[in-house]
Amino acid sequence: MPMFDLQTFVIPDNTRMEERTIVVDGGALIGGYSVIEYGIIAREITTGEHVKICGEVSARSDIYIDRWSDIAGAVHANGDAYLGEFVKIHGKLIIDGDLDIGDHVSIKDGFEAKGWIRIRNPIPVIIFLYLYLSELLRLGKDEEVEKALEELFGDESDELDIETMIVPAKSRITLSAIEVARPVHIGNNCRLQGNIRAESLSMGSDTILFGSIRAKDVTIQKNSIIHGNIDARAHVRIGRGSHILGDIHARTINIHRSVTVDGSMDATRGIVIEETAEEAEELKDKAKESKAGMKKSRKKKRVRLSRRREQFSRLQKKRFGHRTVHERYIRRRGKRHD
């Protein structure tokens, strides 16, 4: 299963951007200071600090909303919930599990929690980690300290499964655009809307985007549809069966021969029409079959023409005897001269 770090904007397979809601099969991880003008439905949802979501938030499992975040609609979790300090919810909070809530949390329409409710005044996380590690060092547990540091700051700690939607910090998802200063990876069978502005973009198969793309490099897999232009500063590659309802501008373009482009293509360093080895062999076989078919057709035509001549000759002999029309003409001319 592919893995991505937290610096890549990831839209997993089967994600749908509906009228005012983003629906994700897996989880959703939203970096701090991001703005999302949609509601979110996902398996579990985690937001960083100062995140603004302009819609309802619904998690099929747990939900974690960090401090100073602002949710414009209701919040519902089928599991447990954590709300950091100074979180604002402009709707109702419904929790089927336990609720862990910080100080100065504002919930406009009240809340329901079926499990335990804990209101806390926590110390900052960095201070807690410092005290925890200091106590381990005091007890001489150096190996446990190294293990804890590895788990917290190791190379794999910033990687998540492709089933999770990852929104890097300071990203913007508005009703008209997806703006992120990071690479974007879009999975298969997605339905998205908005003009994408990113560092680079890779898109899976059978995905539909109602918007344009602007990035340095753009890669689109098979059978995808783009309802807009593609503007790349470097390279564009488009897989077979895709349809671009707009123009393509790039330094170089590699495009499968089966791709449909409704607009124009402009590449300062050239356009390459691609095909696989199997497809090239298939074209050769079709060319041979077509050539053989043409030869066979010409042969049949010659046979039909020969048969018609024979039939015409027999008809002449039947009407005028053994002499043909040409022989009778020559004979008449000879009599006139005499």
Structural account:
The chain is α/β, with parallel strands linked by helices and 338 residues long. Helix content is 25%, strand content 35%. The strands form six sheets. A twelve-stranded mixed β-sheet has the order 18-15-12-9-6-23-24-27-30-33-36-39, with no helix packed on it. Strand 23 and strand 24 (177-179) form a beta hairpin. It is elongated, with a radius of gyration of 36 Å. The N and C termini lie far apart (103 Å).
Instruction: Evaluate the radius of gyration.
Output: 36 Å
Mean pLDDT: 84
- Given as residue ranges, the uncertain stretches (5+ residues, pLDDT < 50) are 156-160
Broad structural category: alpha/beta
Report the sheet-strand fraction.
25-35%
- State the helicity in percent bands: 10-25%
Number of E-type strands: 40
Total number of domains: 3
The oligomeric status of these chains comes to single chain
Number of helix segments? 4
* Major sheet attributes: 12 strands, mixed
Looking across the biggest beta sheet, what order are the strands in? 18-15-12-9-6-23-24-27-30-33-36-39
Cα-to-Cα separation, first versus last residue: 103 Å
